[in-house]
Amino acid sequence: MKNTSLDKMLSKDQIRKEVGISASERFVDFFTPLHWHNFIELELILSGEGEQILNGQHLELKRGCLSILRLTDFHQVNPKCDLHLLNLMVEDSFLSEEILGKLQAGDVLFFKLSESETATLEKLFRLCMVENKSLSPDLRYLKHLIICVFLKIFKLTPRKNGNLSTEDRPI
Fold it and tell me: What residues does 75 pair with on adjacent strands?
C-alpha cells in the first residue's frame, strides 16, 4: 500500500519571526511531496520546467508561472529539470483584511504571465528579498512592497464582468 501521508510546513520553520515574511531565490531539483502551509506562499517561476499538482489540478510549470498558495491549498511539485524560482512566504497576520479577503478559498490562484508581467513581479520579489535579508528590515517598507505584489497580481484576476486584460490570463 502506498504511503499517502500529508506534510504541513510551519511558518516557524520558514519565516523570520520578527519580520513575518521570507523572501528567497531557489533552485528546485527534487520532488516535493503533497503538503500544505500555515502561511501564504507565492512562487514565481523564472526558468526550468515541471509540474505542480494544486488541489488536484495538474499544472505545467515554466517561466512566467505564478502560484499563490493559501492556507487551504494542498500541493506538490515535480520538477522535470531544475526549477529556478522566486519565493515569498507571508504570515497572514502580515496582510491586511482587504488582501486576505481577496485570497479566500475558491478557484486555484495560478497564472501564466506575459514576459513583461514576469519581469515586473520579479523586480518586486527581488526588492522584498533585499529588504528581508537586511539586519534590521524596515517592516513598513516590506509591507508596502508586499501590498504592491498583491495589487499587481489582483490586476491579473478576472473582474466581476469576466473581462481580463489582453496580456494576462490566469489559468
Answer: 35, 54
